[in-house]
Design a protein that fits this description.
Pfam families: Rhomboid. It comes from Bacteroides muris (ex Afrizal et al. 2022). GO terms for molecular function: serine-type endopeptidase activity. By secondary structure, the protein is mainly alpha-helical. It has one domain: Rhomboid-like (Rhomboid-like fold). It is built from 9 helices and 6 strands, in the order ααβαααββαβαββαα. It has a two-stranded antiparallel sheet with strand order 1-4. A hairpin with a 4-residue loop joins strand 2 and strand 3. The radius of gyration is 18 Å and the shape is globular. The two termini are 23 Å apart. The C terminus is likely disordered.
Length: 224
C-alpha cells in the first residue's frame, strides 16, 4: 500500500480510537478538533485541517477509509505521494470552506434574526447554538478522491451494489454528485450530513485537476 494512503488510514483509525478513549474521561475531542462555524466562539482556523481526521462514528469512519483505500492508493500511484497528499488536504480544506459558506448563508437568512434557538429539547442562547454547528469527517476529501478517479479513469467499469450491471466511473461520479446536490437542497428534517461540503471537495478537486492538466498535460491527464 502506498505510503500516504497507509498513513492516512492509520491516523484516522488512531484518532477514532483516541476519541473513544477521551470520551471515557469525559472529553469530547470533536469540540476541540471539529470544524466550528467561523462566527462561533470556539472556532479556530486549524480546525479546517483537524476536522478531516475526526468522525462521528465507526460507520462514518469505516466507509470513508474504505474509499481512501480503494481509490486513494490508485491516485497516489499515478500522481506520487506529494501531489496526492496536497490534493487530499486542499480538497478537505476546500470542503470545510464551502461548509462554512453554507452555514453563513443559513445564519444570515434565518438565525441572525433571533437571540435564542429552540432545539426541541431546550431553548438555548444563539452563542451556544453556534458552537454546536460543528462538522467532522474526511468525506469532503473522499468525494474529491472519487472525482479524481472518475476524471483519470472515466471508462473504468465498476460494480456498484445494488446495480445489476457495471457502470463506468464517470457516470458513477456524476450520479454521486447529483445525489448530493439534491440532498443538499432538499434539506430533509433530521439530515445532519454536510452534503455541500461533499460537493465542495469535488469542486476544489475539479479546479486542481484542471489546473494540473493545463500546466502539464503529460501528468495524469487521461486514462482509459
Amino acid at each position: 500500500m502506498p505510503t500516504i494512503t497507509k498513513n492516512l488510514l492509520i491516523i484516522n483509525v488512531l484518532m477514532f480510537l483516541g476519541t473513544i478513549v477521551a470520551q471515557s474521561y469525559g472529553i469530547d475531542l470533536a469540540q476541540y478538533l471539529g470544524l466550528h462555524f467561523f462566527l462561533a466562539e470556539e472556532f479556530n482556523a486549524a480546525q479546517l485541517i483537524t476536522y478531516m481526521f475526526m468522525h462521528a462514528g465507526f460507520t462514518h469512519m469505516f466507509f470513508n477509509m474504505f474509499a481512501v483505500w480503494m481509490f486513494g492508493r490508485i491516485l497516489e500511484q499515478v500522481w506520487g505521494p506529494k501531489r496526492f497528499l496536497f490534493y487530499y488536504l486542499v480538497c478537505g480544506m476546500g470542503a470545510g470552506i464551502i461548509q462554512e459558506a453554507v452555514q453563513y448563508i443559513h445564519y444570515e437568512t434565518v438565525l441572525s434574526a433571533y437571540d435564542s434557538v429552540n432545539t426541541g429539547m431546550a431553548i438555548i442562547p444563539m452563542e451556544e447554538y453556534l458552537n454546536m454547528m460543528t462538522t467532522v469527517g474526511a468525506s469532503g476529501a473522499v468525494y474529491a478522491i472519487l472525482l479524481a478517479f472518475g476524471m483519470l479513469f472515466p471508462n473504468q467499469q465498476m460494480f456498484i451494489f445494488p446495480l445489476p450491471v457495471p457502470i463506468k466511473a464517470k457516470y458513477f461520479v456524476i450520479g454521486y454528485a447529483l445525489i448530493e446536490l439534491y440532498a443538499g437542497f432538499a434539506n430533509s428534517a433530521g439530515d445532519n450530513v454536510a452534503h455541500f461540503a461533499h460537493l465542495g471537495g469535488m469542486v476544489f478537486g475539479f479546479i486542481l485537476i484542471m489546473y494540473w492538466r493545463k500546466k502539464n498535460r503529460g501528468n495524469g491527464y487521461y486514462y482509459n
